[in-house]
Design brief:
The protein is of the alpha+beta class. About 30% of the residues lie in helices and about 25% in strands. The strands form 3 sheets. Strands 3-7-6-5 form a 4-stranded mixed sheet. A 3-stranded antiparallel sheet has the order 2-4-8. The chain has a two-stranded antiparallel ribbon with strand order 1-9.
């Protein structure tokens, strides 16, 4: 019996700074975005998340003086909140914010840890971190099963004036996507990866331009 015919595969064309064997850069912002907005995700306890989604803005109980972390990756948020099952993360929010605010935060952000080649030295990094209301972490992106991928996903931490602006100026809309998270999780658990993948938010490379101060 002859072997079944195979279709030749074409390896993706690498791009500078990409993961070997992939066209995806190691550090790249991917998000659902429009000409004027970008969607980020957070998860909260119901007493914060429910009124935020209902009113389309964060309630007074949302602590504006604390650092808050926003994530453009839906699947990284699912990894962080366990598909909305972890304590105090049961309400998953899709927060649509202005690109103007997001870009402003990126421009003034500092990496949360020292990286040789990005910072002149450790003291320069400490000075930049102390003077910045925003910081960035690049964490492994996740697949449908929440396994780590070779490329990274952005986490953007906002504090002080950036946190207040996020809550009260940049936010355009807030949606409760907990039902979507549960539906996708149910399909993954049932082994229907194609149906689960079809429900994922469409996240494409965000046109932030080169971000050398963030290692991207």
């Amino acid at each position: 019996m002859s072997e079944p015919a195979t279709t030749p595969t074409t390896e993706p064309t690498p791009v500078p700074g990409s993961v070997p064997g992939s066209a995806t850069p190691r550090h790249q912002i991917r998000a659902a975005h429009t000409a004027s907005t970008v969607t980020v995700y957070q998860a909260y306890a119901p007493h914060l998340g429910v009124p935020a989604a209902r009113d389309g803005r964060f309630p007074p109980a949302w602590k504006r003086e604390r650092m808050t972390w926003i994530k453009p990756s839906f699947l990284w948020m699912m990894y962080r909140c366990g598909w909305g099952t972890k304590a105090d993360q049961e309400t998953v929010l899709a927060v649509e914010i202005s690109r103007e605010g997001f870009d402003l935060a990126l421009a003034g952000a500092c990496l949360s840890h020292y990286v040789p080649g990005v910072h002149a030295d450790r003291e320069a990094w400490k000075a930049a971190l102390a003077g910045s209301p925003a910081r960035v972490q690049w964490d492994p992106e996740r697949d449908l099963h929440l396994n780590a991928l070779p490329h990274r996903s952005l986490q953007l931490g906002l504090s002080g004036p950036a946190s207040r602006a996020y809550a009260d100026e940049w936010t355009v809309s807030i949606r409760d996507v907990t039902p979507l998270a549960r539906e996708i999780h149910g399909l993954v658990r049932a082994g229907d990866a194609d149906a689960a993948r079809a429900l994922l938010p469409a996240e494409t490379p965000y046109p932030a331009g080169p971000l050398p101060h963030l290692g991207a």
